[in-house]
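Q: Sequence in, structure out?
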Amino acid sequence: MKKWKRPDKKSLKQMIVQRDSARIVHYLLRLIVILILIAQVFNKNYENVFLCILTLILFSLPSLIETNTRIDIPDTLENIILFFIYAAAILGEMGSYYVTYPFWDTVLHTANGFLAAAIGFSLVDILNQSERFSIRLSPLFVAIVAFCFSMTIGVVWEFFEFSMDMFFGMDMQKDTVVTTLRSVMLDPTKSQKIVVIKGIENVMVNGKELGVGGYLDIGLIDTMKDLFVNFIGALVFCVAGFFYLKYRSKKASFIKRFIPTLVDKKQNTTNE
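A: Exactly. Output:
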């Protein structure tokens, strides 16, 4: 009887010698987060303490998947996932990068579309490689499923942001200042005529000027921008993934570095 053998744990020296970049990155990032966690405990900032704990849990997920399944996550993909988590939770939320650098949220949503497409792509591709299934799906079908999977993840995340804003008083869907307003609600005749107001410079709420230089859009533009860049990330990966599957024999394919695969049974089993 054959039994699946879990990957052996490596020392830091072995990782450096074997150039195991994923584990080196994992331990370095985890060390940084632990140091930040300790600092936040001393500062009694318990919200940031929770974020650090959540980050450490998320860091462990790729390793848990590889340890408890036959799925092998390429080092390149694993490193991107770890940096993505760190950039979103530690730099974005705790470091206020979302406010300091307006492009930060856009970059992360683009990366999310790319990563989610890679995961969706791999789920179907792993089924294609499995000996339990006789059906082999075409590269085009796999790419379409991966694209839809990525966009679904993006939409669900926007649902989450909206829910947090509505029920917990947060501002995850960031506001945008606009100077032109179009609305049928301003039509006095109630005949669905669009009334346009251009050149908005000042807006008053309850007799107090907002002082933002225009009308404040509360999340719609941000949401649509996030979905659009998610679309771009997903499309780029799925197009590349389609050609990868169509010409899989080319071992040097760049996209191969982002696709988890099933580990070869012959190289990872022992006789019991």
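Residues 1-7 have pLDDT under 50 and may be disordered.
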